[in-house]
């Protein structure tokens, strides 16, 4: 994390990309355990926490700056989803098709976040070149 206000957006985007990367690992692990008896699917909650932190009446720059000061609190929570629910007789609750769709969605999110980080740095390079 870069400790200056000019990088607030980049810090938040980097944290979101890191959470998306963690979620990819969890979703991939779910797919790897699709045939493991009694395995319960896991997921990472990060996006909802960030959205809640960004809701407010003040300007976005101020909300981002506030989130940036508490960025270490946004680590992403790994949780077991529907631990009492099973789709199959063996106690496993992983739906391979649903996991594949979530994995694809997450990969798009991650790629978008990385692209946004690159765009922010491009803007800084333009400003510094003038």
In words, what does this structure look like?
There is one protein chain. With 130 residues, the protein is mainly alpha-helical. It has 4 helices and 2 strands. Strands 1-2 form a two-stranded antiparallel sheet. It is elongated and about 65 Å long. The two termini are 26 Å apart.
How would you briefly describe this protein structure?
With 130 residues, the chain is mainly α. Helix content is 59%, strand content 6%.
Search tags:
130 residues; mainly alpha; 4 helices; 2 strands; 59% helix
Q: How many structural domains can be distinguished in the coordinates?
A: 1
Question: Proportion of β residues?
Answer: 5-15%
Give the structural class. mainly alpha
Cα end-to-end separation: 26 Å
> What is the number of helices?
4
- The secondary-structure element order is HEHHEH
> What is the global morphology?
elongated
The count of β-strands is 2
Major pleated sheet? 2 strands, antiparallel
Strand order of the largest sheet: 1-2
Based on CA atoms alone, the radius of gyration comes out at 18 Å
Mean pLDDT: 86
Helix content: 55-70%
Helix/strand layout:
Layout: H1 8-32, E1 42-45, H2 47-54, H3 60-69, E2 77-80, H4 96-129
Antiparallel strand pairs: 1-2
């Amino acid at each position: 994390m870069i400790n200056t206000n000019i990088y607030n957006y980049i810090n938040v985007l980097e944290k979101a990309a890191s959470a998306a990367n963690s979620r990819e690992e969890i979703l991939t692990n779910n797919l790897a355990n699709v045939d493991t008896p009694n395995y319960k699917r896991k997921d990472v909650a990060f996006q909802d926490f960030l959205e809640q932190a960004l809701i407010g009446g003040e300007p976005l720059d101020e909300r981002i700056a506030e989130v940036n000061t508490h960025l270490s609190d946004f680590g992403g929570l790994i949780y077991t989803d529907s631990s009492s629910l099973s789709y199959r007789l063996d106690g496993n609750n992983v739906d391979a098709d649903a996991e594949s769709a979530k994995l694809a969605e997450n990969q798009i999110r991650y790629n978008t976040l990385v692209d946004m980080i690159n765009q922010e740095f491009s803007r800084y390079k333009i400003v510094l070149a003038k």
